[in-house]
Design goal:
- It contains 1 helix and 34 strands.
- It is an all-beta fold and 470 residues long.
- Among the domains are: 116 residues, Immunoglobulin-like (Sandwich), CATH 2.60.40; 58 residues, SH3 type barrels (Roll); 87 residues, Immunoglobulin-like (Sandwich), CATH 2.60.40.290.
- The protein starts with 7 loop residues before the first strand and ends with a strand.
Length: 470
């Protein structure tokens, strides 16, 4: 924002219409407003407004459309026999910068305030040049590159509109009083799921609450809008003029309570918000999406490592902590069985006194019914894994590319109960375990998994020898 934008005053009357024969459709003329919001950061808008159509040709101005709309996606819906001849998106919006640029070569008034008396005086000056955040003014006896105080303009350019407007040329053979619809795609309206999961470790169950976080950065307010939230990935062709960054204020509004039932739409899922929503520009709101009180989960401790054949020393090995992974199968039998839109899942648990404690968060991907959710909110503080390479031998000549490696992996447990730690080694292609202290499972073509049982307050050593092709 240019520093002088808030210091410009209009000395003229209110902004007049760009064209006298236009039929203005202000936002107050809306009879129905709907937005289908996609989790990719855009929305499909349907805006209906009532007006009278005269026989012949007329220009209809939809005022207050989103300044982040894609003009090429605009469609006008008219009653028969009316038809649209053309659509024009007017970018010439009345702003302080636009007003100053229109005054180039013209005379404006510079308001100065006396520092002690507070008396204001107006000195005429001619605008010689306008830059980003600056202007060059010629006074009667000098030229200055900036100005104190405010600028006063005596007229408003007729080609500047008070707000973004889409203008349609319409032709009809008979006059009519009807609702006219405008639909378009716009950036800046987005939603994402937020999940809160309260874990009951003793029962191996979790209470899940899902909310839709709706964000409006379109540049216009939504008033009593019917909303549909669509979950899934939708392909769009990138346009260079679509990426207009707008700041988002950290404001939150209260959320309605009822959950929403998902409805299949093509290969996506749509959630209809049961009540009309009013959402100001730069505002965020959370809306109840889904809930489940007793969902079964399993907890795993997982330590993963990439196995590479390196000759020479690589320093002293350091212990690492296994990840804590919670797995939920999205089925009705497990207490869930609902489509889960992508979002952030925050996990909580109760301490001994019953207080709720946050234990971490993870991203949840789009998850259909029957799929599996794996959340990794933290590392296991009381568990550690130390890997040591004890041997590396080349098999055959130096060009064979075949080596044999030996590893010792110490898993320590400081907990008061025994645990099982999944030790996962990712191997290069063509690996073969030659010997091992415990049997492994070939999870994939490159992953070997050992389930290591570790006693309470104790340690277990896993050792194995593997042949690799480097």
């Amino acid at each position: 924002m240019l520093k002088w934008m808030s210091a410009i005053v209009l000395a003229a009357s209110a902004v007049t219409a760009v064209s006298a024969d236009e039929v203005r459709l202000p936002v107050d003329a809306q009879t129905n407003f709907a937005a289908t919001v996609y989790s990719s950061g855009f929305a499909f808008i349907e805006d209906w407004r009532r007006t009278g159509l005269a026989a012949g040709r007329s220009r209809i101005a939809f005022e207050g459309v989103s300044p982040r709309m894609d003009p090429s996606s605009a469609m006008l819906w008219l009653p028969a026999p009316a038809r649209a001849l053309d659509l024009t998106y007017d970018f010439n919006v009345l702003t302080a910068e636009a007003l100053l640029r229109r005054a180039l070569g013209k005379e404006v008034g510079v308001v100065r305030t006396h520092p002690t008396s507070g008396e204001e005086t107006v000195e005429p000056a001619t605008v010689l040049a306008v830059g980003t955040g600056s202007a060059i003014l010629r006074y009667r006896d000098r030229v200055e590159t900036d100005f104190p105080g405010r600028l006063v303009f005596t007229e408003v350019p007729t080609d500047l509109r008070a707000q973004p407007t889409l203008v349609a040329t319409v032709e009809t053979t008979a006059p009519a009083e009807a609702a006219i619809g405008l639909s378009y795609l716009t950036q800046g309206l987005d939603w994402e799921a937020d999940y809160a999961l309260e874990l009951d470790e003793a029962a191996s169950q979790v209470a899940l609450i899902g909310r839709a976080r709706l964000t409006n950065a379109t540049g216009v307010a939504l008033k009593h809008a019917r909303l549909v939230l669509v979950a899934g990935d939708v392909r769009r062709v990138h346009r260079r003029d679509e990426e207009r960054v707008m700041p988002m204020a950290a404001r939150m509004a209260a959320a309605p309570a009822p959950d929403m039932e998902p409805e299949p739409v093509a290969d996506l899922h749509a959630y209809t918000v049961p009540e009309a929503v009013t959402l100001a520009d730069q505002e965020m709101r959370q809306i109840s999406l889904l809930s489940a009180s007793k969902v079964a989960f399993t907890r795993r401790y997982v330590s993963e490592s990439q196995v590479n054949a390196r000759f020479g020393t690589s320093g002293e090995p350091r212990p690492t902590h296994p990840q804590v992974r919670y797995t939920i199968v999205n089925t009705a039998a497990a207490g869930l069985g609902q489509p889960l839109p992508a979002g952030v899942a925050r996990l909580y648990t109760r301490d001994r006194a019953g207080g709720l404690r946050f234990i971490g968060e993870d991203r949840l991907n789009h998850t259909g019914v029957g799929d599996t959710v794996v959340l990794t909110p933290s590392d296991a503080f009381d568990l550690s894994v130390l890997r040591r390479q004890t041997d590396l031998t080349r098999v055959g000549d130096k060009d064979s590319g075949i080596v044999e490696m030996s590893w010792e992996i110490d898993v320590r447990n400081a907990k008061a109960e025994a645990v099982v730690v999944d030790v996962i080694e990712t191997m290069p292609p063509g690996w073969q375990v030659l010997s091992e202290s415990a049997p492994h499972q070939r999870e994939t073509a490159r992953r070997a998994v050992w389930q290591v049982q570790v006693p309470a307050g104790g340690a277990t050593r896993l050792s194995y020898r593997v042949r690799l092709t480097t």
